[in-house]
Design a protein that fits this description.
The complex is a heterodimer of chains A (about 120) and B (about 500).
Chain A lengths: L1 H19 L4 H21 L23 H31 L4 H4 L9
Chain B lengths: L4 H15 L4 H29 L2 E4 L10 E4 L1 H24 L9 H17 L3 H21 L9 H26 L4 H11 L3 H18 L7 H5 L5 H26 L5 H24 L3 H22 L2 H32 L10 H4 L1 H15 L5 H16 L2 H27 L14 H20 L1 H16 L1 H9 L4
Antiparallel strand pairs in B: 1-2
Helix pairs in contact in B: 1-2, 1-4, 2-3, 3-4, 3-10, 3-13, 3-18, 4-5, 4-10, 5-6, 6-8, 7-20, 8-10, 10-12, 10-13, 11-12, 11-17, 12-13, 12-16, 12-17, 13-15, 13-16, 13-18, 13-19, 15-17, 15-18, 16-17, 16-18
The chains are: A mainly alpha (about 120), B mainly alpha (about 500).
């Protein structure tokens, strides 16, 4: 179980890093959304193997309970990640409106007229 | 209960400012009063801590390790005082920079959210809560960065956001690893269990990972390039707050991480941090020397001085920690004031490009004197405040036998002086016929007043350093003393 989630986290981090390093805004955005989820998965996999464990809401004392804390943490992380992603979408949209481009490299190709 | 005032007051002020207040003038009044009260409270908190020792409080009344601990010890109190001081100075300066009518209604509330994030970061005793505090701080910083940016400058927010989003994702992963390794996120319990694990290679991996995350936030070489381009795009009052405080929160976390959380035998980590810090200070100051406008020079300087603090941290003695804290306190005050001098220059010369500024020494000698004191203090000329921090770092370096690193630090100090001279020559000394000095814009007078007050504070630190060094030594001993921290938070002997 640990091996599977470790592999999955690895693949997600690799894919999201690849996407972030692309030029297009949409791919970069997807990359950041994905990397946040990869990090959340790291947190979740610290619950341990859930098989044979009851969900934290089941009040059965004969069955051991799954660790609820990572799930609570992850919930917070998801909400924060969502807020940041929303901000990021707006920033990219504003840059797109100002610069009429969706290529991150094109942004820094020109010098501001008043720059030195 | 009282420990949460530095969290509740900025939060309520910000919410009140967004939802209730409609008039900018009234908002200014209320926010000034709030910032002043926060500073007064912070100073009271610091005196209280030095008199009665550190206190701890649990959110919601759940005792540790289940509840989130809010720990007010010396370093936290020092950081809260510095935050409140810088925030007050920057808020007041912002009033002079922008007229009431042109002020963005969200600027002041966002500054208060930023203060909330910083205060929570330095007071929390829980790793995940630290992540939340960082996010509060960063989200307000993203918003402030782009709030008043023009069409050209808004592009600089993109690398800033990208690197910080990446670091935040890694920080979530660090929380995950900490929970997996230690089975807890409470600082005290992490410290306890890390000590029991002593020598486990997983600890080094965890420490390295955490160091990279907080190193990005602090501007560690080679991950610093997002900073010196992003800060200059802000209005100067905000750039002063960012330049003074934000990277220092990363430094604080590194102090806490190496001092309290991890065992003190991770030499491999310390060596890595020492050489990265040498890179940070050297390349930071080279970058500063290459820039030709005041905000750009100062932004690169932030990195160079962050390098100094990290060098001190990597030496891992109480004396070196005290040096790092003293240098950090000096740097927050002086760096913010220097940014504010840049702001006054922009009012007087209508620009801060050094080829178009000039004549300021002739027309506004008071501003010139404050700049000179601040710049010499930054370069570490005795007996100004920067000297003591640098002196202690150099002594700590020699004691540890790190001669090469100390040599790099001293060369960096000289280069700092060189780039400060560049501002001095360009803005103050240079006689530039084409440059008008707009002393008719009376805003520069109160601006110089604010800068002068900050300069006096820095002078007091420089001329009467005993008290401040004592305070920093206490804070350093406290940071390095795991047993007392564990005892304080968990209530049991380890």
């Amino acid at each position: 179980m640990f091996l599977v989630s470790a592999l999955l986290v690895g693949i997600l981090f690799a894919v999201s890093t690849y996407l972030i390093l692309q030029g297009s805004f949409v791919r970069i955005l997807f990359g950041f959304i994905l990397i946040a989820n990869a990090a959340n998965l790291v947190l979740l996999s610290m619950t341990g193997d859930p098989r044979g464990r009851a969900a934290p809401v089941v009040l059965d004392e004969t069955v051991p309970m799954a660790d609820p804390l990572p799930q609570a943490l992850i919930l917070t992380a998801i909400v924060i990640g969502f807020a940041v992603a929303a901000y990021f979408v707006f920033l990219l949209y504003r840059i797109f409106l100002d610069w009429k481009t969706d290529d991150a490299l094109a942004l820094f190709a020109k010098k501001k007229p008043t720059d030195l | 209960m009282q420990a949460t005032f530095p969290l509740i007051v900025p939060f309520l002020t910000a919410i009140f400012g967004v939802l209730v207040i409609r008039s900018s003038a009234r908002r200014r009044m209320i926010f000034t009063a709030s910032a002043g009260a926060q500073l007064a409270y912070a100073v009271w908190m610091l005196t209280n801590v030095s008199a009665n020792g550190p206190t701890v409080m649990f959110l919601g009344g759940w005792s540790a390790p289940f509840g989130i601990a809010i720990v007010v010890d010396h370093i936290a109190a020092i950081m809260v005082v510095l935050t409140a001081l810088t925030a007050l100075a920057c808020i007041l300066f912002g009033f002079l920079e922008v007229s009431v009518r042109n002020e963005h209604p969200l600027r002041l509330p966002l500054v208060q959210f930023l203060v909330l994030g910083i205060n929570l970061s330095v007071m929390t005793g829980d790793l995940f809560n630290l992540f939340v505090a960082f996010e509060v701080m960063l989200l307000s910083s993203y918003a402030l960065l782009t709030l008043e940016a023009d069409d050209w400058d808004v592009r600089q927010a993109f690398p800033y956001l990208a690197i910080n989003l990446f670091a935040s994702a890694l920080l979530v992963a660090v929380c995950g690893f900490a929970y997996g390794l230690f089975g807890t996120l409470n600082f005290a319990q992490i410290a306890q269990r890390a000590q029991e694990m002593g020598g486990d290679p997983l600890l080094v991996a965890f420490g390295m990972f955490a160091m990279i995350v907080f190193g990005i936030k602090a501007g560690l070489f080679p991950l610093y390039y997002w900073l010196p381009n992003a800060y200059p795009i802000m209005p100067i009052a905000l750039a002063a707050l960012f330049g003074g405080m934000l990277t220092k929160v990363g430094i604080y976390v590194l102090l806490r991480l190496f001092g309290t959380l991890l065992p003190h035998d991770m030499d491999y980590l310390y060596t890595t941090l020492a050489w990265l810090s040498a890179g940070t200070m050297f390349f930071g100051v080279l970058g500063a020397a290459s820039r030709t406008y005041i905000r750009g020079i100062l932004s690169f300087h932030i990195l160079s001085q962050v390098g100094f603090m990290m060098l001190a941290i990597s030496l891992m003695t109480p004396y070196a920690f005290a040096a790092a804290i003293l240098y950090m306190g000096h740097n927050i005050i002086v760096k913010s004031s220097l940014f504010l001098v840049g702001g006054a220059t922009m009012v007087l010369n209508r620009t801060d490009r050094l080829d178009r500024t000039g004549n300021l020494w002739e027309r506004t000698p008071v501003l010139g004197v404050t700049f000179l004191l601040l710049a010499l203090s930054l370069s570490g000329i005795p007996p100004l405040s920067g000297f003591w921090g640098k002196y202690m770092i150099v002594v700590a370096g020699f004691t540890a036998g790190e001669y090469v690193l100390v040599a790099i630090a001293i060369i960096t100090g000289l280069l700092t002086l060189f780039s400060m001279l560049k501002i001095w020559l360009g803005a103050f000394w240079q006689k530039n016929e084409a440059t008008p000095v707009r002393t008719d814009d009376r805003a520069w007078v109160p601006m110089t007043g604010i800068i002068a007050v900050m300069t006096v504070i820095s002078l007091v630190i420089g001329l009467f350093p005993e008290y401040f060094i004592q305070l920093c030594m206490t804070a350093a001993h406290e940071l390095l003393d795991k047993e007392s921290y564990i005892q304080l938070v968990l209530g049991t002997a380890p």
